[in-house]
Amino acid sequence: MSQITVSNLTFCYEGSYDNIFENVSFLIDTDWKLGFIGRNGKGKTTFLRLLQGKYEYQGSIGTSVVFDYFPYTVTEEQEQLPATELFGELRQDFELWRVLCELEQLALNPECLFRPFGTLSHGEKTKAMLALLFSGENFFLLIDEPTNHLDAEARQVIRDYLKGKKGFILVSHDRELLDACIDHVLVLNRNSIRVEKGNFSSWWENKERQDNFNRAENEKHLREIGKLKEAADRTARWAEKNERTKIGFDPIKEHDRFLDTRAFIGAKTKKLQSRVKNTERRIEDEIAEKEGLLKDIESPVDLKLMPLDFHKEVYALAVDFSLRYQDTGKKDEFEDSETRRVIENFRFELHKGERIWLKGANGCGKSSFIKAMLEKAGYRAQEHGAEVSTLGQNGSREEEGDGKKSEMRMEGILEIPKGLKISYVNQDTSFLKGSLAEFARKRNLDESLLKALLRQLDFERVQFGKNMEEYSEGQKKKVLLAASLLTPAHLYIWDEPLNYIDIFSRIQLENLILKYQPTMLLVEHDAVFGEKVATRVVNMVPSTRKMP
């Protein structure tokens, strides 16, 4: 066991005016299973890169261990390599037998290591990279958001796997994962960094208890300061009134007063003025003691939503609905087209006031069904980051990807009533480019309202001057969520809205949905969030049929 010592760490990106870290100091053990918690944009990923020595900084980071980071960076050329060759390029100490031992714990078929890495699913890539990460020896591991985009089954496998490991920092906003896998937390508070023993739930309970105590102490100090200010003001008035009697008096009305009385009055005034100064010092002490009590308290603002009311009760209806993709392009003259059935005989109803949690394994067609709904509703996909497409005859459309054209064909019944307004959050953020002003103009949103809502989601003002390409993934997702909340709609369709979103913002969104109860269709792998907000769960089963 060794330690990582951080002393007076200060870091700021070149060209930026705000420090990400300022005189930060703490100590952690390399045997810990450490969960890293903090708001989006507070510097979690930046700190992991500082540990790796990727940026210059002030202060010191002392350790005897070597760091390794997940996810590994893989180029487009490396995507074409079999995983065994790729792993040899990523890690000089790569040993196949060690990786195979880890794959067994991750329930992943070793056959995938001999396929081109780019052909693996997102879940297979994640598991394979984790197996490589933990196959080494004497490394302290930095794991950044390992469960994003993974379905419930894959998340359970990752949770079970990490339970048996130690010696890592885990950056995650998945509350179930943090509770299952960590024994310490490293928290980026608003104005401090705190290391604490326990998992997420124990830290959250302690934080709420401490925040409530600090609020009560703050109220007590405010009352005491108020009383002291009243006393100081009253004493000052007495002193001033007394001082005015030093010179001049009526010998008839004040027959017992003599010229020598002036010295007595002066001494009394001086005593009162001394009392005022002592009270003012006590006020300053109370203020100093009060300062800092609220600096780390998270007080998420209650967000607002004004869903529109639609005249029909049924917002969406699918009966015996099937969807398949027909690959119409060919890479060469010998390659045949292929048909992939994604959804088969699916039945679905969405009624006014329902919040449906659409669940299912990756690849079962959840996002494809959402896109089909959007097109049936006449949703302007290009303006909102959905795939650009146009419905053709017989409910078909064409898409392009991987050098092929893919035509989506729909069969059965899928009905969306005319006039239904939809607010959509895409799971993809790669299309976000340019300034917030340009984004607001494209979406017909009020720029000042968009920025005000982002501030409520804990956006720093300095971010408003940057292009969205420079935002973290969590900040990009908040832009899409804010745009959705500002778009008047009858139906809110959110496709994996919480990837990279911090825990505090997730709680804000939970409270928002429960308060305003909009009609929603939600695809989300955060089980805690889904269980809290959903009124009904619909499970999708992937189609295994391949059309001739």
Explain what the structure shows.
Helix content is 36%, strand content 23%. It has 548 residues and is of the alpha/beta class. Strands 5-6-7-3-8-9 form a 6-stranded mixed sheet, sandwiched between helices. The chain has a 5-stranded antiparallel sheet with strand order 13-14-10-11-19, covered by helices on one side. The relative contact order is 0.11. About 6% of the residues have low confidence.
Radius of gyration: 31 Å
Q: Percent of residues in beta strands? A: 15-25%
The major beta sheet can be summarized as: 6 strands, mixed
- Average pLDDT rating: 83
Identify the quaternary structure here. Answer: single chain
Which structural class matches the secondary elements? alpha/beta
Shape: globular
**Total beta-strand segments:** 19
User: How many alpha or pi helices?
Assistant: 15
Share of residues in helices: 25-40%
Low-confidence stretches: 330-337, 381-403
Give the distance, in angstroms, between the N- and C-terminal Cα atoms. Answer: 59 Å
Main-sheet strand order equals 5-6-7-3-8-9
